[in-house]
TrEMBL record:
5'-Nucleotidase C-terminal domain ranges (all copies): 281-423
One BP term from GO: nucleotide catabolic process
InterPro entries assigned to the protein according to its UniProt record, in alphabetical order: 5'-Nucleotdase_C, 5'-Nucleotdase_C_sf, 5_nucleotidase/apyrase, Calcineurin-like_PHP, Metallo-depent_PP-like, Pesterase_YunD
Record keyword Signal present: yes
Organism placement in taxonomy: Bacteria, Bacillati, Bacillota, Bacilli, Bacillales
Protein name: Trifunctional nucleotide phosphoesterase protein YfkN
Alphabetical UniProt keywords: Hydrolase, Nucleotide-binding, Signal
Family: Belongs to the 5'-nucleotidase family.
GO cellular component: outer membrane-bounded periplasmic space
Record field: transmembrane: none
Domain Calcineurin-like phosphoesterase: 7-200
Record-level Gene Ontology MF annotations: 5'-nucleotidase activity; nucleotide binding; UDP-sugar diphosphatase activity
Top-level taxon in the UniProt lineage: Bacteria
Amino acid sequence: MLQKLWLYHTNDLHSHFENWPKIAAYIEEKRQVHDQMLLFDIGDHMDRVNLVSEADYGKVNVKLLNQLGYDGVTIGNNEGITLPHDQLDHLYENAQFPVVLSNLFEKGKRPSWAKPYHMITMENGLKLCLLGVTIAYTPVYEKLGWNITDPFDSIRDMLQEVKGQADVIVLLSHLGIIHDREVARDFPEIDIILGSHTHHLLEEGEMDNGVLLACAEKYGHYIGCVELTIDTARKELIEKKATVQSVDQLISESDEAITTLQQAERRAKALMQEKVTTIESKLETKWFDDSPLPQLLTDAIKDWCGADIGMMNAGMVLDSLEAGIVTREEIHRICPHPINPIRVTLTGQQLIETVQRGCEEKMEQLRIKGFGFRGELMGKMLYSGLSYTLEEGEAKRVKDVFVHGQLIKKDASYTVGTVDMYTLGSLFPHIRDHEHIEYFMPEFLRDVLTWRLKEAT
């Protein structure tokens, strides 16, 4: 006899709660239609850019997952490395679903809230094994007191452990599309990979080496569905296909989800009214010129990191601060990024090349997506303890660079306090490729800004 099993999945919501009531209503409707259905989330459900998730460190996200009756989740980097250790350790204490995550450890043991795999037995006797792994940002996890292991090694170990126990194997993967394809190539015994992290949309799935890859983009724009056809007599998977549902096309909204979010917003607003300090005059922000507030943060990063030089793009600060009382909400509004300070050591020559790259017009105008940045564009590169002159002409060519008033020495070494966004992508290769990057965690840039504002008053 052939039966259907429906796997619905969400990923990379990033606390875009505006779409959640429609998602909740859709899932509730599907539960009335399908005899056998499971629901999974593949991580980055939480993002502290949202005031609600910032206020309670993601607890409201878990509440929403509970309300909708998720059957399993894994974590993304936003849960894993933007929360302080203790906050992540308590995030899922009231979870009514398994957190499946095999490659995270603390002092040689998996945290109590994480399961290496999860077995689900359906009403028809079919046994489904759920695996889960997340991307290994090793130095960052270590700085937070966790040990993250190679996800491929972890998948291999788990497959060996569950061998012969399951009829269907599903991997919740917060690794990204490139790694998912590698997993499919290396582990054809996996039936379905539900993906995330790189925000890719696979409208009809992707078949790689007999493994079905599925992903539903980002921000709750889509809900993913994998439809399985099972021969129940032989406990055999006959067919698997993937689709997505655009949330924009949905009309119904969940009253329960709306009420929960409204209550959470009121609570967050109240919590975030906490006074940070009082400033006597406006601290202005300009993205393409010198201005006091971004410069204040650049100076603070240098001092926080104990570096010779501070370096930060002005676009990191989204707005000015008006004179008067400054609250946590205001600080969060102007600096919402889950970005941490770092310290690296560069030679004088590397520093000259980095300054030159930061001067380029295309760099100032660059619109950034990802890397933790939640602003619009880079803006002017600001420095603390460093100045430079330009050659004459329209092209911005660096002539001389000075560190604390002294001409830079090309073969000397200088410590630079800057932001971890520069360790990703192709923005500043000398910083990205550095062998020894010191991360300052769990503090975000807004915590450094808060520290400096309090210190100044």
